[in-house]
Design a protein that fits this description.
single chain, about 220 residues, alpha+beta, 9 helices, about 20% strand, elongated
């Protein structure tokens, strides 16, 4: 896997100051799985650029419940961190590594300087548009109750090999493609399905049926 920061984040080739100029100040850090990288209501200490691994970003309630908002993988940006730095406001969610993760943590002052570079600023603004669609889908799922159960039910009864796009599934379920894609990736991480272009292979029908039947209960 190529973990060169500029390959994963091409905009870094244009930022000032450059990664090379910053030297040890932006040396990669490695954290174990389940490491809390940032917490709700805390000040943002830096902007994470994931080189390997994954960060789960979620909101947590006082009663112990949590709601996953999105995940950050290599080449993607963190909406919660950028929003906090834009507004100089506390963080709105918690970030936890889901597996051993290697990342750069860009200091707030460097992040602000990099925003002066149009290509980097455009990447960050584009992130807001992408994540907004994602979070809108999440709101839909919460409002209409357990979209994961409905998706599991929709996948069943079509055989093991489905020639379906994420958009087709979204249309059937009355939601947005981004939300369906998020849930299918979660199903894939659980080992229930395998995803390919315009194709879904059911690996564990029993597990999907257990999720779908929860809806009836």
């Amino acid at each position: 896997m190529n973990t060169d920061p500029v390959t994963l984040y091409p905009a870094l080739a244009h930022v000032v100051p450059s990664l090379h100029a910053l030297g040890p100040a932006v040396a990669p850090m490695v954290v174990a799985a389940n490491t809390v990288l940032f917490s709700e209501s805390a000040a943002c200490q830096g902007f994470p650029l994931v080189l390997e691994g994954e960060i789960k970003v979620s909101r947590h309630a006082g009663d112990g419940r949590s709601l996953e908002l999105y995940r950050v993988v290599p080449g993607e940006l963190c909406l919660v961190s950028s929003a906090s730095l834009f507004r100089s406001a506390p963080l709105m969610a918690r970030g936890i590594s889901t597996r051993p993760t290697r990342l750069l943590m860009i200091t707030p002052s460097i992040f602000v300087q990099w925003l002066e570079t149009p290509v980097f600023r455009n990447d960050v603004l584009g992130l807001f548009a992408e994540r907004m669609a994602d979070l809108t889908g999440l709101i839909d799922a919460v409002a209409f109750q357990r979209l994961d159960q409905r998706l599991a039910a929709t996948l069943l009864g079509r055989g093991q090999s489905l020639a379906l796009t994420h958009q087709q599934l979204a249309n059937e379920l009355g939601t947005v493609r981004e939300m369906v894609s998020r849930l299918l990736r979660r199903f894939e991480r659980e080992g229930w399905v395998e995803l390919a272009r315009e194709h879904i292979h059911i690996v564990d029908s029993k597990a999907l049926r257990a999720v779908a039947e929860t809806q009836a209960g």
